[in-house]
Amino acid sequence: METPFPPFEPNGPDDSARGPRLREIPLRLVFPNLITILAICAGLTGIRLAFENRYELAVAMVLVAAFLDGIDGRVARLMKATSKFGAQMDSLADIVNFGVAPALVVYVFALDQARSLGWIAALIYAIAAGLRLARFNVMAERENKASWQSEYFVGVPAPAGAMLVLLPVYLGFLGIATDRTFAFVSSVYTVFIAFLLISRLPVWSGKSDGNRLRRDLVLPMMLGVVLYVALLMSYTWEVMVFTVAAYLVSLPFGARKWRRKYGTLTIEEPGVGDDDIGRHI
Fold this sequence. Notes:
The chain is mainly α and 281 residues long. The chain is built from nine helices and two strands. It has helices at 27-51, 55-78, 84-109, 116-140, 158-165, 167-173, 180-198, 218-234, 236-262, and strands spanning 152-154, 202-204. Strands 1-2 form a two-stranded antiparallel sheet. It is globular and about 50 Å long. The relative contact order is 0.09. Belongs to the CDP-alcohol phosphatidyltransferase class-I family.
């Protein structure tokens, strides 16, 4: 028979025996994580559409996933809703949207005809994207960051890598025959992009506070952005090919600017400890 009175506790109630108390979470803390989840859904949907031979929609979903994955962190900072949970979610989404999804889409579209070599190229790219993201996370968590980290990336960033590796798909949409030769060339190109991801090539980020734009160039730049978006909507794949080519051409200029300033061709970090795996990759 149950007693109507609670048991006597000489030291007060024992809260450790109870389960965790549920508390309300502000919606602003949840919203950035919802964007991350939508990005994962878009990336995975792009993979499905590729296997269904709906390639244009597949590429569009991968690019949408990359866009959403790129803004979730900024939205979190803008809404003051950053959290360790959100950071872990974002890292997991990155490997799907920037590594796995682009690799599988380009494999199904073009690399498949190269058989095992095409699959190996896709694997190399996906692994390289994972290594690139891991290195970025390690560098972002350092307490003492180098001054150049606000101006340069170490290697091509993963979102840009996802855009670059899809070049064979863009060319296929423009009418280039996706035969066996095209598959082998695309495999070599995919491995090349993977190398750019894990390289120590200095890639200008454009995020430095020291970068200023002359007042008289503000309106022409805004007009140029509008023109670019309008062309992208009308001539999507031609503009994407041009964008990839322009990005690749810009890499040597960023490295040249780094060499003039620091005197080396690649980014070296002599202050990193021997126990930091990022020093070796």
